[in-house]
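Co-fold these.
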Amino acid sequence: MIETPSSTGRGAQLGARLRDRDLSAAPATLNLVESRTPADLRETADLLHELSPAKLGGEAPGHVIGVTGPPGAGKSTLLSALVRAWRERGRTVAVLAVDPSSKRSGGSLLGDRARIDFDPSDRGLFIRSTAAGERLGGLAPATRAAAQALAPAFDVVVIETVGVGQSETDVADVADTVAVIVQPGSGDALQFIKSGIMETPDVLVVTKADLGKIALSARRDLSAALRSLGARDTQVISVSSVPPPTGIDDLVDAFDAHRAALDLPVRRLAARRAAALADFAVEYGERGIRAVGGRRAALKLLGEQDPTLDVPALVATLEQKVPA
Amino acid sequence: MSETPAHRLPERDRPWMMRTYAGHSTAKASNELFRGNLAKGQTGLSIAFDLPTQTGYDPDHALAHGEVGKVGVPIPHKGEMHTLLDGIPLDDMNTSMTINATAAFLLSLYIVTAEDNGIDRAKLQGTTQNDIIKEFLARGTYAFPPGPSMRLIADMVAFTVTEVPKWNPINICSYHLQEAGATPVQEIAYAMSNAIAVLDAARERVPQEQMGTVFSRISFFVNAGVRFIEEHAKLRAMSILWEELGRERYGVMDPKHLRFRYGVQVNSLGLTEAQPENNVQRIVLEALAVTLGRNARARAVQLPAWNEALGLPRPWDQQWSLRIQQVLAYETDMLEYPDIFEGSVVMDGLVGEMLEGARAEMAIVAEHGGAVEAVPYMKAALVDSHRERWRRIEAGDQVVVGMNKFEETSPSPLVDEEGGIMTVDPAVEAQQRNAVQAWRAGRDQAAVDAALERLRAVALDESQNIMPASIEAARAGVTVGEWSQALRDAFGEYRGPTGVGEATAAEIGPDLEEVREEVARVGEALGRTVKILVGKPGLDGHSNGAEQIAVRARDVGMDVVYEGIRLTPQQIARSALDEGVHVIGLSILSGSHKELIPAVMEELKAAGVDVPVVVGGIIPEADVAPLKAVGVAGVYTPKDFDMNRIMRDIVGLVADRGGVPAPA
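Predicted complex below.
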């Protein structure tokens, strides 16, 4: 007898397709991980279980890159050029663009899609815009799960968020490589790095290199500031998206270099633990955190678990500590 | 000889130039239309080009599908320009071309056509619209990024000032700003700021002693709404600011050079689909705004037709509008007097208010670094103003007779079985596609390749003027699509700001609150916030309606993927799939809905996207049933001004499709 689709759940099926690098599973996967109904949450857990390091036999091969920066820094134009460069190198790309939600209406305008040039017949590119919702830190609730789900299937998974300050911290928890985009003449980024509000990014990108001198001096100032902080590993790259674009290939190389030097299992494991704690906190609130003995104790508990567990499994270990 | 008293003119003024914005289907059909209009007493030409010509695509390009010959005439090369102008004395004609991104090439075609007919380019009179900033702000037919676009304009100014000295290379359009919702103060301020950007760019390309002449060749193209007293004050304020600007910023001294000159097309935004005959009196009153006071009277007037909100006007509809002008000019006594508002306390007061407001707004634009840099700011301000206008109409604070008040009506005998409009023969597109391919096959290809090679080189070298190479290309038989592609290669593609991201949230009324609760309830049941895709298929860049829908959808709590303009059906389908939207809203005003909407529906099916699609725009009644037959769930036209009702419909469609039961 032919096995009917219902004999395995939607989540598990999607997980299996993504494991086989079936990119056409991406839209349905995102619809699932974004859903908050109890049934869909269970399916999402199944999905992520299918894609856990245990099932994959190691960490997902895709490179998860966080791209963030203040509005107007030229993120989407840069992303457009980056996507083109990756596609030209034959890499498949998923872009998860996170936009802020209106506090007043709960609605949002996801305008970035209009700014990325794409060929509608290109199956190797997937773009999804998501509203950040009420979650602080700039990441949509489902974005971590989405990145984890897509990393086994796509060569590159980009998470794009707006803002300087809070959001980088969140992105750093989920991405292998974090790039902060600044435009010349904006001292904010420098101030944020110096004051420690912003974590030191892996790659700093100065846009609008076509502005010449200003861009050059911005790049010099940033390099000097990073040196004074002892952050010698952070690369500073100047790019211009104005034709002819410059610096894009350098940036792609810088991403590759960072990823090559990275202890991936360590970073991914930390990301999964951070994600588990964050998801747990959303579900159970401060009371739940107290029930497991505070954040530190929670992280310690997570650290004692099997490193190949997926996030929902980790959340479940915390849940067991919450009195019914 | 007796002295003329101060309240009379020694002799009656000559009437302004009378034009009708016209062109459709083919060069041949449009040529017949032009000749007919001239025979009826029209005194100048105003050419409407179709959207592919305006945005730099040949009739056989994928993006041109559905748009060829729709809102204007397709003129891809000199052969078509010859046909269009056949039998029209170009040394005697004053021609206005509504062309912007591709203006340099269309002027080149015009020059080549004249010269082929033995007419010296120095004799040519007329204007190319050529105002790119308002394309970014309101009209959407741009092709290149702002920097290179401004350079093309400056090139044309520098070229025409010596080579085609009677030509107005640009008219600064505040017209489209009002169509996009600008208040009179915004219209003045943004138009003036825009003029400053153009003049500053031109100043770098012409010697200072020519600046007076350059200044005098800049004309304006304004709008006039039905609040005609205020609108007249606006024009007086503009002429004061213009003179001030010439003197103070550009050192222009000659009073003749400092004169504020403008043409006008009166308001289309305020024309209604409901009881459309009322538009006739609106048009008359708007015409008064630009003709009544001698000190700020238009040089050239074109009036829309009464049925513009229904579809494309027929020749008879356009004749009616021309006759309005003729009655005003020849039957009334308005041309017999000096300025009738001189010394009016009311007029002076209004002008003073506008000057103050406009100066303040111009200062803000200047702080942003000028009009080019301030495009996102101005765009967001316009979206906001438009939203406020809409809110006032919805709330009944602004009365629109026949639409939100006095809605009772008898059936209109003016709207016949065809809907009282003109339709373009669908066969035109295929015919034009074949024609341009035949043209390409019949040219000296070596000459074309050489001309394009040179054009690319000139485009990349900012020290050179684009015009000589463009004229050479036009003469060699290059098409508008090839010319534009060469420039796109050099300058890059560009997508303008949408202005929706920065738009202020709507005020919460009980009506909006109710829709918002329903959106939240349905989203909760579905597991995800209700997500809508809003976009414009085809080349139509009039995005105001789509933007308002996008902003309101956000305000009722939806996640809105705003896709902007110029989308192919395939792009829309792909975005809908990737984004996982629950519903799609499409807007088309160019009359191409009959081709494009079925194409979108097909692509959606092919992509496996099964969500409700609603369509808004200028959709004639007769086209509604065929759209529904291909699966469109709802059609909205200009008479559907209650956006909360539209939102309620949309969330209802989403609930139905998602199997969400009605609230208990």
